[in-house]
Amino acid sequence: MYKKLGISNEDIGLYTSLLYIPWVIKPLWSPFVDLKSTKRNWFLWMQLLASAALLAIGFTLPTNVFFVTSLACFWMVAFASATNDIATDGYYMIGLTEDKQSFFVGMRSVFYKLANVTGQGLLVILAGYLETYYGDNTKAWSYTMICAGALMLLFTMTNFFVAPKFEGSKAIVLDKPKGFFEVFVSFFKKPGMGMAIAFILFFRLGESQLVKMASPFLLDPTSVGGLGYSTSEVGTIYGTIGVIFLTVGGILGGILISRHGLKKWMLPMLIALNAPNALYALLALTGTTSAFAVTGTVIVEQFGYGFGIAGFMVYLIYIAEGKSKTSHYALATGFMALGMMLPGLISGFMQEWLGYAGFFIWVVLAALPAFFLLKFIKYPADFGKAKEKDEQSA
Known about the structure:
With 394 residues, the protein is mainly α. Helices cover 79% and strands 0% of the residues. It has 18 helices and no strands. The chain has helices at residues 9-18, 21-25, 30-35, 39-60, 66-95, 98-134, 137-162, 170-174, 180-188, 193-203, 205-219, 231-239, 241-260, 262-286, 291-319, 325-366, 368-374, 389-393. Helix 10 packs antiparallel against helix 17 and helix 14 packs antiparallel against helix 15. It is globular and about 55 Å long.
């Protein structure tokens, strides 16, 4: 959106990366989500707030101060989304056993990414169509954001009627932390937490920069190193074929972990997550605009994300095991968000400095620390593996 409204890559990278701050600092209020009300109430109210903020973006884009007002509304969406994350993560973990969490983690990641694809793909297709129809980018994106707010409101209403109420059981009530500070102390006292946090911070160091500049790379003209694709073309690639392979990758990742445990698949999943970095570098170095090459790269990117992130999310579930798991998972994902935000802050500047080819080579190198740290982290080899049928029946 901002690219089509005349905002520079530096400002896009900087200001949109700052929107990660609520996810970084969400552990500060995660104990309140644990201690007050139910996870269901929290995520319903936060989804309603996000709906209102998205509608507000749509109505304020035609103004002269659209950049400031839209960023303010996006901050509201970011706060609501981060709090929604805390509540829905806790809702997921207390509602499912360990093996079921592993089995569904891929599907969960798929639907998380599908929300991103809806923004990067389906809504972009709509915006591209409206840009052509009206000949006015501002009007096109204004109507698109109003549609996004209406869609979010529809999902909120759906969740109100279909999300089950199960948080009144005695076991779930006893799992709540006794006090605010106990949450933080018990998290950092877990064995090997220092190395675990380092791994979390570096796991997505390359991919976090790639995701910021992939769309500008496809959209920028060939004269500045981009590929010159239109808004609707980029939306179509991400919103159709990309969705299919994202779904396949995420579901496959969850199934494989539930069958064999986390240890066997962590390295292959880390490779899958970072393989697209090299393909984007190849596109930039060769300057090819071939639809086959670009679509193939997006396929690998989306499949790799769906498949690769499954192992990471199961590892975060392991980190959060024990009492106060909702707040501990929020802490773990807060460090993950920090590992996304800091590299994202410099991504636009790095791209302007190095050009697209140099930038994507840098992204390939930035993925290497995660491979080094992988051999030092500790977790049960069979974590996430489904119990054998005979054990279940015993």
